[in-house]
Write a structure and sequence with these properties.
Elements: E1 7-14, E2 25-33, E3 39-42, E4 58-61, H1 66-101
Antiparallel strand pairs: 1-2, 3-4
Length: 102
């Protein structure tokens, strides 16, 4: 059994999704798998312990830095909130403009 390996998305610009103001869109270029070596713990009686070879008796655990993952999730959340805020302000400005004109 292989331990979980983190996956991450690689984006690239997509000119077909460009806006009228000149901003370019993005699309998913690929989904990559982290190639980090797993963490090994000696647990010979664990059901997932390696049975033979130089790592016999060791269990492979995912090598994931939870602090980095949490920070990435927090950054993504803040970026999403900022984008929603911009959309709300744009919508409000459009409504105010219509109110002034109408």
């Amino acid at each position: 059994m292989q331990p979980y390996q983190a996956k991450f998305v690689v984006f690239q610009t997509d000119e077909t999704l460009a806006t009228s103001s000149g901003a370019a869109g993005v699309k998913v270029a690929s989904v990559e798998t982290e190639q980090a070596e797993p963490m090994y713990r000696y647990q010979p009686y664990h059901p997932h312990a390696i049975k033979s070879g130089p790592k016999a008796g060791y269990v492979a655990y995912p090598n994931i830095n939870m602090s980095a993952e949490f920070t990435d999730a927090l950054v993504a959340t803040r970026a999403y909130e900022a984008n929603v805020g911009v959309l709300e302000i744009t919508k409000s400005m459009g409504q105010q403009t219509l109110r002034i004109l109408g």
